[in-house]
Amino acid sequence: MRFLLRFLLILALAFLLQQWLPFWSVAIAGFTVGLLLSQKRRRRLYGKNTPPARAFLAGLLAIAVLWGVKAFLIDQANGHQLSTDVFTLIFQSPDALPSPHWVMIGLSSLLGGLLGGLSAWSGNQLGEAVQGGRS
Amino acid sequence: MRWTNFLLSLLLTAGFLVLLLVPVGPATFPLGSFLDPFQGFWQNAFSGEEKPDPVIPLSGLSGKVEVVIDERDVPHIFADKLTDAAYVQGYLTAKDRLWQMDFQIRAAAGRLSELIGVGPDSAVLNLDRTARRKGIPWAAENTIRMIREQDPEVYALLEAYSNGINAWIDQMSPADWPLEFKILHYRPEAWSPYKSALLMKYMADMLAAGASDLEYSYAMELFGRTYFDLLYPEYPYAPDPIVPAGTLWPADSTMPAPPAAPASYLPEGLAGVSQPFGRTPEGIGSNNWAVAGSKTATGKPLLANDPHLGLNLPSIWYETQVVVPGMNCYGVTLPGAPGIVIGYNDSIAWGVTNGSQDVMDFYTIEYQDATQKAYRYADGWKQVEIRVDTYFVKGGAPMLDSVRYTDIGPVMYDQAFGDTDKPLALRWMAHESGNEIRTFLELMRSRNYKDYEAALTHFVCPAQNFVFASAAGDIALWQQGKNPLRWKEQGRFVLDGSNPAHRWQGFIPQPHNPHVVNPAQGFVGSANQHPTGPEYPYYYTGGYDASRGRRLFELLRQTDSATVEDMMAIQQDALSTYARDILPLMLAELDTTVFEDYSWSAYRALKSWDYRYDREKEAATLFHFWWESLMTAIWQDECEQEVPIDWPSWATTVRILRDSTEFKFYQKTGSSVHYDRRRLVNETFDKLVGQLSGDFPTQSDWNWGDRKGTHVRHLARVLAPFNRMVVTDGVRHVLNATDRTHGPSWRMVVSLGDKPTGYGIYPGGQVGHPGHPRYDAFLDKWSVGEYYQLWRMTSAGDRTGTVRAAMTFQPST
User: Of A68, A90, B90, B142, which has fewest CB within 10 angstroms of its CB?
Assistant: First the structure.
């Protein structure tokens, strides 16, 4: 449940921020949610720390899903035209793959996801550090 | 420990963020912003179903403007004032073509290295320096100052158009920026009337920058007068000038006497200059014509035009209809300037082909001393002005370049650029301040021949053949531009900057520009051939086509009861007059006794060929390869020198082969065997046959369309995935001049009458965004020679065509 909450909060906050701010705003979303949901409340509820990997995974999945789905929807409406051409532009290989649009969607999803994951992990670690300092 | 963990995680996150924030490796863009589906390239992937807002408030409008976007994305603009129409036109053109507009004027202004860097071997920087040292930005500054001071109406129009572009730019968020800005990673810049003037100079540079001064000077020294005249004749072997041969030019008191030629017209000591000069890219050309009512099915004139330019995406043209009280005009505009360049209204239609004169001359400069502050003129010295150009090169320190401006023009080549000890100054008609946009404005609202004639007088450069037809029944063609008054052969060779007699001696008076009005033959036309026969009282020189004009006039002479379809068929005509003139002789020279299987296959295919460069014909490929190898065999050994030398033209080569079995240049340099025509023809034919294999001629890869391959290239050549490839009929020297990278950039046919009907198509799409489904919407139809019927709406409420969107622009504060 907590994982799902974290995932949803990051996704929603990133979605909101991205209406106005550039791509790095997903790091703000990951970091903020990571920090807010870090171990303080959790320890009260569960009496244990959130493993950093879970914070990372929630951030990764949240942004990967957000960017992946957004790119997928745009790509469907566009009939893969631009994603195919941009694939060729970046990888300089016109006929390398049967479905180059998946590579582009995957690439966006992966890079966004990594940024989301890393920032959520960072936020979580800050929360733990602050908390740890007091206890 | 926990703080260490945090710092580690923070470091990793920040590190990754930096990787996403800056361009990494060969990438020109940062990966993060580019791949972000909310603002990056994904936002440039359109479904094609996007709808514009139905009501758009714009500050600066004086009244309401109604716009209909039709199913082909053509905007039809209805306004009460022309400035309001121009405002909205700027806004809508920017919506579809902003990147192209920005890129074209950056090329003209010599600012591409700001976006791309110096390029391999400084190629991009050299391109920029060429543009600036030609004086393009300087000339545009002078031109826009002249318009601002002398023509408030046109300046107001340019300002309104510019405001419209900027209104579009201002409402964009970075997510909306056109794809190319994101790939090349730079931001859109505000427009200004100066940039429209730059665009006009960009066109002048494309169409009127042909000069062989240096090449001809070397050829003259190398080959001598007799052979020079044979290899580079002023007139081709079968001239068919625009103004019918034999037209008398009445003696006129205003006619200036031709200046006397100086004793010596070749400056000394050119050696060391190896910079090839500005050339009109091959394949630039055009056809246009008008047929009088006496020769048409309707009894009213027909007009046709197809300008042949570089085939680019986004296309050089943008279709637009502009309607204000008293004017309803449809045609194509150049994105970046408000006027309709080729089009029609209720009363008239017009079109353009390139005039093709050489209006670009080079003068040797001798400086007084090493400071280069004065140069020799007559018995004294003249001061030069120094203009310092700054290049803000991407990824490097700004570069400064001091360019010397003489009273002739800028010193284009010297030790700092072109690496020559003999500085060369440039005199170019594009340096003159012309008001070409006024010509287009007045043509848009012309009602008759008189209006058209008056409209043309403002047009300076690049000189164009303006074809005209009116519903009233007049047809006409003026070659319009400002032309220098010259002594015989002035401007063919490099001129001497110190000799007063070498200066341009004035200009040909406007009324004496070549023109023809309602001739007895019942048609007028042009295809970049000579404008006049030798009886024209003024000297001019240039790079004229010797083939398409002949074929055009031949077809127009045969035409009777002409229809729109007949005009389209002429635009698609792919018959080669060169092949028709020379191939029978080439075949007759062949020694058939030594023929093998493939020789016979090739021979039979060529023998039965109808001289048409149609896509499915193997014989066209055979002839083309054979001819090119024959040209190479004749000219390469003599013309590939340390210094640049022009190869003689196709027309000249046809004439020499036709007339001479023996010719000095047939001989292969260094060979002990004697070369005559027969040997050349047989050797090159053997070479051609040697390339055949398999089950020729049934194998399809020898068909002309595939062998030629027509590329419609993205304007930024490096973005190859946005190029498109098509298979087409035609070749450079036939009426359907579709070559590898050049071709008919807008085909239009207009039938005049009470209600004019127009047909047109260009190889591209209105929406210039590579991620849009209609980016190349017209390309397939264009490649097979089909047309759209143009929808010239009668009012904003007209629904006789298909509407994609209707918009209202309203003044706001």
Answer: B142
